[in-house]
Amino acid sequence: MAVETLRWRERRLELLDQRLLPERIEYLECRRALDVAQAIRDMVVRGAPAIGCAAAFGIALEALRGETLDAAFDLLAESRPTAVNLFWALERMRKALDARGAGALEAEALDILREDLAINRAMGQHGAALIKDGARIMTHCNAGALATAGHGTALGVIRSARDQGKRVSVIANETRPYLQGARLTAWEMVREKIPVTLITDNMAGHLMSRREVDLVIVGADRVAANGDVANKIGTFTLAVLAQRHGLPFYVAAPLSTFDMSIADGSEIPIEERGADEVTGYRGMNWAPQGVLVRNPAFDVTPHDLITALVCEKGVLRDPDREGIARLAR
Ligand code: MRU
């Protein structure tokens, strides 16, 4: 059965609590914008399109409570900095508010959710054309149903290829430090019986050198106007490795992830998360007290390392400023 990452029940937002996966399936109920902002910050819901959808419902919840909305917009905008879908969704809710009033916001949030699912299916169709029968596909982080309203971006392409009868298999990088690959991507693939092999991130180059990988496909948190892509930390390393081994490196992202106000990737704000994600996990600690830690959650892959970008309008090969401008028009 398809996983429901976000659901709208009796005018409440229910979020599948991704912190608990793969051990438990539990939903967290949000009644106001503050709950949603906290859930985004705490990684109950994560992945660029899913964060955007959740934020839209945060505004809708606050409108249903009859509250003034400026504080809710500010609160949600501060929840996470890198995925531009958050700001895109808030902007869209702001426009709906200005044009049609607070009464229109519930319907607008539901439209954003439905459209995201349809966009992922369209992207899946376009992207599946890039996937050959028998392809061994490496992916990083989780760009699946859990990161979107459903179907997924990178995993959506894989699902669509499978639906077309292609025998695909997935190599999921575990994605240190937060383990979205091990916990979420592997879970989604196992549930659907798509063959999946889990590796630690530092095994990627070895597998490529032994010709055990045919292509890499990932999602994105923000695409700059020149085609540079911010995605989960470690994506840039994979793109360099893919180039070295002559492997195609694909990015699947909806147009809501494109930020035409940013000239190139150097301007993309990169979230720096807490040291505890690097020094341990779920209460276990493996680093000495006093050690200095860095924990950038995303990195930027320059556009010239990207073979093609897949979006709902089609496939853009060798993405650059002109190609991105054509797509975004
Ligand atoms: O920190 P996360 O889990 O929110 O990061 C998610 C990613 O980096 C995804 O690859 C990206 O948002 C694309 S999801 C379709």
Ligand names: 5-S-methyl-1-O-phosphono-5-thio-D-ribulose
Q: What is the C-alpha radius of gyration, as a whole number of Å?
A: 19 Å
- Beginning-to-end CA distance, first to last residue: 36 Å
Number of domains: 2
Number of helices: 11
If strands are numbered along the chain, what order do they take across the biggest sheet?
6-5-4-7-10-15-16
Helical amount: 25-40%
Helix and strand sequence: EEEHHHHHEHEHEHEEEHEEHEEEEEH
The outline comes out as: globular
Main β sheet profile: 7 strands, mixed
- CATH architecture descriptor of the largest domain: 3-Layer(aba) Sandwich
Let me know the average pLDDT. Answer: 97
Structural features, described:
- The chain is of the alpha/beta class and 329 residues long.
- The chain has 2 domains: 6-118, translation initiation factor eif-2b, domain 1 (Four Helix Bundle (Hemerythrin (Met), subunit A), Up-down Bundle); 125-328, Rossmann fold (3-Layer(aba) Sandwich).
- It has 11 helices and 16 strands.
- It has helices at residues 33-41, 48-64, 70-77, 84-100, 105-128, 154-163, 180-191, 204-209, 235-244, 276-279, 321-328, and strands at residues 6-9, 12-16, 27-30, 136-139, 169-173, 196-199, 215-218, 222-224, 229-232, 249-252, 258-259, 280-281, 284-285, 298-301, 308-311, 314-317.
- A 7-stranded mixed beta sheet has the order 6-5-4-7-10-15-16, with helices on both faces. A 4-stranded mixed beta sheet has the order 11-8-9-14, covered by helices on one side. Strands 1-2-3 form a 3-stranded antiparallel beta sheet, with helices on one face.
- The site of 5-S-methyl-1-O-phosphono-5-thio-D-ribulose has 18 residues, from helix 2 and strand 9.
